[in-house]
Amino acid sequence: MAANTRDIRRRIKSVKNTAQITKAMQMVAASKMRKAQQLAIDGRPYAQLLNKISAAVNEVHGDEKHPLLQQREVKKELVIIISTDKGLCGALNTNLLREAAKFDPEKTLFITGGRKAAQWAARSRRNLIAEFQLKDTPSFVETKVISKMAIEQFLDGSVDKVSVLVTRFVNTLTQEPVVFQLLPVSASPSNTKDMEAAREAGGLDVEFEPNSLAVLDALLPYYAHFAIYRAVVEARAAEHSARMVAMKSATDNAKSLIKDLTLEYNKIRQASITTELLEITTAQMALG
User: Fold this and answer.
1) Domain that holds residue 7
2) pLDDT, mean over the chain
3) Of 19, 68, 80, 89, which one is the catalytic site residue?
C-alpha cells in the first residue's frame, strides 16, 4: 500500500512539473501570438491595395507580356513551403506537410522556410534546392531572399510555375494550410473583384509614366517579394496561435490528471487508514 501511495506521489509531482513548463510555454506563446497576429492583421489593407494596383496595371497593359506574367506549360513546378522550426504546436505542421505530399515528386522542386519542412523534404527524398531559416519576426529584407531565388528560377526557365504552401492565420483557434500561385503573376479571385470594382469606379482610367511596362518592371518583383513576406507573417501568427492553444490544452489536461491522481491517492490512504483502524479494533476486542 505504501508503495502505491509513493508511486502516486511521484506521478503527481512529475505532472505538476510538466504543468508548470506547459503553462510557461503558453504564456510565452500568448505574448508572441499577440504581436504576430497584430502584424498579420495590420498588413492586410496594404496587401489589398497592392492587389488593386497590380490588377489595374495588368488590365491596361495590353498585349505586351512581362516575363513574370508569361503562362507556360507546367513541366516543372517550384513549391515554397513555410513551416515552423519547432514542434509543440498541435497538428499545424502535420496538416501543412500532408498538403505538401500531394505534389508530384518527379515534377516538383522545393524551397523551405522552416526546419520542419526541411526535415520532411529530407525524409521523403524530395528535390530540395534551398533551405532558409527564418526568425520569429522576420523582416522584409530577410524574406526577400526567398522570393528573389524563386523569381530567378522562373525567369531562367528552370521552373514554369511557382507556388507557395503556407498555414494561413484565420483566428486564434483556426489555422488552415493554403496553396497560392506566386508566379506567373495572375489575377487571383480577389484581384478580379478589385478590377471589377476599379472598373465600375473608373479607377482604371490612369496614365503610367514612363509606360505601363516600366511600371510592371518595378511592381511585379515587389509584388512577389511582398507576397512571400505576407506568407511568412501569416505563418508566424498561425504558429504562435496554435502553440498557445496546444500548451493551454496540455496544461488543462495536466491539471485534470493531477486531480484524478490526488483523488486516487486519497482513496488509497483512506482505505489504508480504515484497514489499520479495523486491525486495532479487532486486536482490542481480542484482548477484551
Assistant:
1) 2-23+247-287
2) 83
3) 89
